[in-house]
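Exercise 7b. Backbone tokens:
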């Protein structure tokens, strides 16, 4: 009887890229901008963890005031309804810790790319550990995790912002250190990002979205006194229009810049910011308003609560 020859040593690997196989093997997940048509998001509906925020302890959790749980949940539910009305799939984190009241601010916990998610490592002890439930939820959805911030690095998702497929801003400051920024930059360059704008997030802001946010293709709303010259110069050189937002009260108290773009030139923002709304509309941006006053007692709003899972390429 002739013996079969085992040819295992002669197998050759597939030369297909991860991206080419991603939809077939993982699912339809993608993000390379802040303004492409929004198709899927990840949120955390506030649960038991916000029940105990009182006058005595709210500052311990970096809140600006106590929070009314029922009203906060209703405001987030209303935002989710706006997303759904615009064809956005809303997914929720499962199994989140019950001792982390900041967990509703999902933008800090992951940063989405064309090839999957970067799972973040929060800077402050009151948030450490939230990322575990996020990672488990991403895995259950089939979203690839291309990096988890480790070592001595810390990085929060709102410390990075897509300008376009080839360009990302990364800011360092109180919530992202150099080690975390380098880890993110390495992964972005690995998937084809050519231009990394490194900038320092100033004292008085903790994330980039505290003083800049994309509103349309090649249009960036900025609070000019927090944007460094080098950052602004690079953006201008690449043809990005900088729209200057100068109302400090609406920026800090009304969180007028804490919005999410639904599609190019259309966004949802916190209500009660007439200057912001007028400025945006004067630049051709369609504005939808949502009540966020209770959510804002946690020093966050719409952009903070929303982690992108899929945006259509622009």
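Sequence design result:
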């Amino acid at each position: 009887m002739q013996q079969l020859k085992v040819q295992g040593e002669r197998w050759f690997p597939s030369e297909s890229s991860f991206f080419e196989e991603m939809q077939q093997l993982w699912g339809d997940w993608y993000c390379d901008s802040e303004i492409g048509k929004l198709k899927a998001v990840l949120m955390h509906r506030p649960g038991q963890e916000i029940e105990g925020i009182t006058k005595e302890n709210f500052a311990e959790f970096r809140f600006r005031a106590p929070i009314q749980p029922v009203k906060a949940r209703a405001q987030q539910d209303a935002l989710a309804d706006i997303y759904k009305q615009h064809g956005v799939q809303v997914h929720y984190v499962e199994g989140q810790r019950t001792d982390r009241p900041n967990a509703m601010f999902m933008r800090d916990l992951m940063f989405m790319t064309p090839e999957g998610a970067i799972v973040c490592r929060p800077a402050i002890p009151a948030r450490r550990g939230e990322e575990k439930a996020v990672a488990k939820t991403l895995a259950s959805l089939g979203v690839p995790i291309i990096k988890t911030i480790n070592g001595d690095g810390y990085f929060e998702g709102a410390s990075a912002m897509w300008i376009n497929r080839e360009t990302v801003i990364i800011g360092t400051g109180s919530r992202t250190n150099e080690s975390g920024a380098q880890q993110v930059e390495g992964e972005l360059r690995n998937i084809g990002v050519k231009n990394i704008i490194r900038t320092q997030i100033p004292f008085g802001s903790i994330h980039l979205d505290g003083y800049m946010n994309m509103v349309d293709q090649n249009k960036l709303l900025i609070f000019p006194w927090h944007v460094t010259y080098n950052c602004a110069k690079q953006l201008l050189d690449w043809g990005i229009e900088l729209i200057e937002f100068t109302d400090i009260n609406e920026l800090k108290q009304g969180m007028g810049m804490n919005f999410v773009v639904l599609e190019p030139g259309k966004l949802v923002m916190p209500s009660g910011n007439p200057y912001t709304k007028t400025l945006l509309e004067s630049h051709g941006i369609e504005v939808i308003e949502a009540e966020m006053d209770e959510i804002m007692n946690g020093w966050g709003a719409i952009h903070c609560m929303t982690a992108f899972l899929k945006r259509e390429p622009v």
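Instructor comment: The mean pLDDT is 95. The first strand starts at residue 38 and ends at 43.
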